[in-house]
Amino acid sequence: MRIVLLGPPGAGKGTQAVKLASDLGVPQISTGDLFRHNIDAGTPLGLQAKQYLDAGDLVPASLTNALVDDRLNDADVAKGFILDGFPRSVEQAEALNDMLKRRGLKLDAVLEFRVPEDELVDRLQGRGRADDTEDVIRNRMKVYRDETAPLLDFYQGELHTVDAVGTLDDVFARALQALDR
Ligand code: ADP
After folding, report:
1. Which protein residue has the closest C-alpha to ligand 1 atom 23?
2. Which residue among 77, 124, 166, 176 sits deepest, i.e. has the most Cβ atoms within 10 Å of its Cβ?
């Protein structure tokens, strides 16, 4: 299955992506994790991406789209994928459509994890990642509202909304149900 996960920072996409990937037997592709690995390894991509992650801004589309396009060439992706954190803008969604079309593929589903905003801030402040400071969190929320939320319309036809308030297992069960599994 080829699935895109959408949801604001702190919605628990990453955790659910790992669980879904292992349940469905497909790789999880997290652009945030890929950027962080590149930053930790000091690669040229990491050096270019770091300032954007530190500020909570989107890494430019040229870098991000190329990263995903490359990853889609790996053999393990033949079985499908869970895309976590990409696309994050209409521009990226259009680029993803092109990448899939070139490979003769299409998405099976888009899952939106929905959580009220005041709960999100509490969750993120409890997490303690480098980009989880108050100013950066606020900016990531704004970027979500401005850049990413329009994807809810873009994917209207294939969108399934999952209530992401509850235990990890509750949310996982709802996600599987949304996928008819
Ligand atoms: P979260 O969703 O909790 O904010 P992520 O790990 O998905 O965490 O993303 C962290 C940061 O990585 C983002 O704030 C952004 O700087 C960068 N990033 C991740 N995915 C993308 C993407 N698709 N396009 C641009 N930047 C991205």
Report:
1. 86
2. 124
